[in-house]
């Protein structure tokens, strides 16, 4: 028999959710999202469970995101399974954010895309010396979803815009600086921390194991990041980065220039809009509309082909330049349509 894709269990007062696809760095499937939701629903009213811990099997990472190969297959076939996956995933993200008991997310190793969604919305977010967090969606012709627009738009200064448009990964200290994590706990302390969580208060247990993280890089780059990314368009952001004296700004411009022009324009607008939205739920509603539109865009299928399927790292974007991105098409992505989860209308659970 195949091993369960999600392991759940209760020890003492701790409910544990362990993603269990280590060979795929625990990439999320619809089944996994459903199993996680079912466990959280069971424990929400349980007098036994006081704290929930989310972690990943294996030593490569908590979660590499959604199962991109499955999403690609759905996109090229014209299917709708991706819409069901995103609907369930985004509801799970909102549920984790509003959960009435402490949710501790162990963000060890690689945490990307959907992995951010099941961890960065948790009440207690822990990173380790092995943590690498990223929202690299623009590199596959997509946008930061799973509440990514909400998280990144509320990062200090323009740090979130930098992470969204470059897709760069960050370590523990930078994840804390960006507001994606709260505490640094060395990886070898997971077992004793989990034991402490079975009987003790979550905040007190984490405080007993947390230490200062190694030094990061983002804080020292804030001057040029905040100045360059404050521009109103991707084209102007690139101009500012290229003219800045900081070598890191030039490197960022090079990274951005390789991404999907359409995805870059959509992502910048998504972040700017999310910053003015009233709630995470409203941001997730907007992201669902964007995801439904971008699923059918040529750049999503092409980006996944180049990065994941063929791995030639040579995507042929359509259009190929920022100047040729159709403003009306972008406007259509944001238009209200039948593709709406209605999370904001229902409010927090």
From TrEMBL:
Lineage: superkingdom: Bacteria
Q: GO:BP terms for this protein?
A: L-valine catabolic process
The reply to whether ATP-binding figures as a keyword in the UniProt entry is no
InterPro entries in alphabetical order: ClpP/crotonase-like_dom_sf (IPR029045), ECH_dom (IPR045004), HIBYL-CoA-H (IPR032259)
EC supergroup of this enzyme: hydrolase
Do you know which SUPFAM superfamilies this protein is assigned to? ClpP/crotonase (SSF52096)
Task: Give residue ranges for domain Enoyl-CoA hydratase/isomerase.
Answer: 15-334
Q: What is its EC number?
A: 3.1.2.4
A single Gene Ontology CC term: cytosol
**Record-level Gene Ontology MF annotations:** 3-hydroxyisobutyryl-CoA hydrolase activity
State the protein's name. Answer: 3-hydroxyisobutyryl-CoA hydrolase
Originating organism: Catellatospora methionotrophica
Q: Gene behind this chain?
A: echA9
